[in-house]
Request: fold
Amino acid sequence: MSQAMMERRLAKIKMASSFPISRPLALAFILLLVLPLALEAKLHAKPVLTYHRGPIITGRLNLSLLWYGQFGRSQKNAIRTFIKSLNYNGRANFQPQVSTWWEMVGSYQSMAMKHSRKTPRIQVNVVKQITDNSYSLGKVVTKDFIKTLVQKATAGNRNTVAVIFTSRQVTASDLCSGQCFEHGVIGKQPYILVGNPETECPGTCAWPFHRSDSGLQAVTLQPPNGNIGADAMVIHFASGLASTVTNPFKTGYYQPGRRNDVLTEATTACPGIFGSGALPGYTGKVRVDPVTGGGFNAHGYKGRKFMLPAIWNPKTSSCWTLL
Reply:
């Protein structure tokens, strides 16, 4: 480069640098450039779940459902149909399927039982259902009440997993504050707690069917079964099932958190991801039903559609989605 050209370029730089730009405007411009990259880096930070040699659920999964509070028929039907869809293989033109998602959950068995040549399919059965529409323990469910609800759901049968669904009128302890479902063990009895977030925390736990409280404010989707609460509960119930199968006693697959009680598990390793290309506040690649306008990524029993969360794939050590 000649000296004359260099002098001209330096002069241009000086002119550009002398243009009056306020400090707040400059800071805002930098944030616009950096924030999307930071959000993407946070989303795609790669957790590593390791097997801690404890038992995982294999072969058969019996569920005892407790409907705590007032649920509409359509809400119950959406959740029950999702359960039927876990082991349902539909027609070839209905792809992808809920059962394919469930097979990914089942693939953890082969990683835990390395001597096994074939991964058995986990058969899901609802063996009991109870409805408590009178709020027998009140409308605020704390940790102290969970033991009573688990016993009510299972009647002491340890061969079942208690699943407690709470209605939109109920405030469930710890839900909405950093987690949208809970799973754990009372004695030797595994349980899952899922609340309806439509009233309490829709921006946290009803997304992508409600505007998100954080991340990119992308377009929200219509719920595939026409009910924000029920379709959001399916997402978190699915997450709870995946965590319960792969880490029922907190000794299976997980990555320890900063606090001992916060573990990264099969679906919480991939938060807010429903399809390829996802970003915080953006689901990634999903489909839209041309008739109802509902967003979905999985076909289920008798053509029903659902939105299911991404799962951490133990074979590739990465988040896996149906689409």
In short: The mean pLDDT is 85. DSSP finds eight helices and 16 strands in the chain.
